[in-house]
Amino acid sequence: MSQDALKVAAAEQALEYIEEGMRVGLGTGSTAAKFVEALGRKVAQGFKVTCVATSEVTQAQALALGIQMSTLDDQPYLDITVDGADEIDGALRLIKGGGGALLREKIVATASGGMIVIADASKQVETLGAFPLPLEVVPFGLAATRNMISALAIDVGCEGDIRMRTLSDGAPFRTDSGNLILDCHFGRIPAPEELDEALKLVPGVVENGLFIGIADLAIIAGSDGLTVIGAEESDFP
Ligand SMILES: O=C(CO)[C@H](O)[C@H](O)COP(=O)(O)O
User: Fold this and answer.
1) Which of 15, 34, 120, 211 is the most buried (most CB within 10 A)?
2) Could you report the per-residue pLDDT of 20-52, keeping only the tens digit for each?
3) Strand partners, 18
């Protein structure tokens, strides 16, 4: 099975958890886009949901598919969010932000009664950290912020690479909120909670890509089938 087909399989399984009338947070990235596609097909058959997007890209995709969209200002509580991840460990701790949407993704997931993560098996890890941890930082005081990050008391010092829009145009990537992304190669992160706490104390860091205690369920598609980590279907969300 291709990686694309695995993403579709996880996305379609997540659709089973969506009930008519739910308020649904829509994630960002190629796997989340498969879920939006699948939901769009269901909506085209008359299924009614109201959704909030975690990025402008997802918002545009969902609108084009005829999905009814709202905002967290109008719907401050959502029933469920479905999103992808860059890494998932056995305790449902995640690294997210590969698509640069981590701030809105965390706001939307935290405003939801439950979060389902969908991924292909390549995202499942023993210990987080092979994927560089994305941080959303304000442009003001960037050099000072990077100094503070590299001074954090963690094994591998790292000030973070400023993410570029493309490799060639020399312009930094800007998030939907106008901020920058620093990709931090901290190496293995055996204690994500501690790193999360430390990063929260750096004023220029708006948010970091560690999602701890947020995801309730992960649907992971591998060539040997689907694996579900987390709450049983019967009591979720
Ligand atoms: O966190 C994200 C975007 O900010 C994505 O969910 C994450 O990068 C996974 O993306 P993909 O499904 O394309 O591998």
Assistant:
1) 211
2) 999 999 999 999 999 999 999 999 999 999 999
3) none
Q: Which CATH architecture has domain 3-124+212-229?
A: 3-Layer(aba) Sandwich (3.40)
Residue range 109-118, pLDDT digits in tens: 999 999 999 9
Of 11, 13, 2, residue with least CA distance to 36:
11
Per-residue 3-state assignment (H helix, E strand, C coil) for 97-161: CCCCCHHHHHHHHHCECCEEEEEEHHHECCCCCCCCEEEEECCCCHHHHHHHHHCCCCCCCCCCE
Among the listed residues 216, 229, 228, 231, the one whose alpha carbon sits nearest the alpha carbon of residue 109 = 216
Going by the annotation, the residues of the binding site are 28-31, 83-86, 96-99, 123
Which numeric CATH code is attached to 133-206?
Answer: 3.30.70.260
CA of 208 to the centre of ligand 1 (A): 14
Binding-site annotation: residue ranges for substrate? 28-31, 83-86, 96-99, 123
Residue type, 197: E
What interface predicted TM-score (ipTM) does this complex get?
0.99
How would you label 156-173 residue by residue, b for 16+ Cβ within 10 Å and e otherwise? eebbbeebeeeeeeeeee
